[in-house]
Amino acid sequence: MNTPNSTENDWKKCNNVNSNRLAKWTAAWVITLAISTFGPMFIWSQHDIITAAAIGFNFLVGIGMILANKKHLASLDELQQKIQLSAMGLSLGVGLIVGISYSTLDTTGLINAHAEISHLVIVMSLTYMVGIILGNRKYR
Question: Is 104 within 8 Å of 129 (Cβ atoms)?
Fold first, then answer.
């Protein structure tokens, strides 16, 4: 028979397994992104087929990362799911508004720099982290 303590330990173990799986998929995605980005410059000499294969592999690993994230989110308790959903919604909204405004500033020539996707990723990542921190603080 499961006691309340053993159920809590099972949940923690499952959560740790899902968190570790997500971390491994995320690390794999970052590594394959670095290889597909810097490979043509440092590993192989501008072979379009190798570069396309590396980008395709990165895309497939990204799908694996999304599925691992989905499984991780499903394993969280209702409060953590709410915090994650709120942070993701905030990040999506800020990313959409900032991204479109930033792109419009670039296309209209109001800024000299080119609107780069990396800038948007940074803004969305920081927004997501702030959303997680604020959500955890709110429900403490």
Answer: no
Q: Is 1 a residue whose pLDDT tops 60?
A: no
In the block, which residue shows the tokens 């994650």?
Answer: 84
115: tokens are 């609107």
Classify the C-alpha dihedral 22-26-32-35 as positive or negative: negative
Distance CA 66, CA 68 (A): 5
What global pTM score does this model have? 0.79
For 32-46, the pLDDT digits (tens) are: 999 999 999 888 887
Cβ contact 120:99 at 8 Å: yes
Q: Is the pLDDT of residue 6 over 70?
A: no
**End-to-end Cα spacing for the chain:** 32
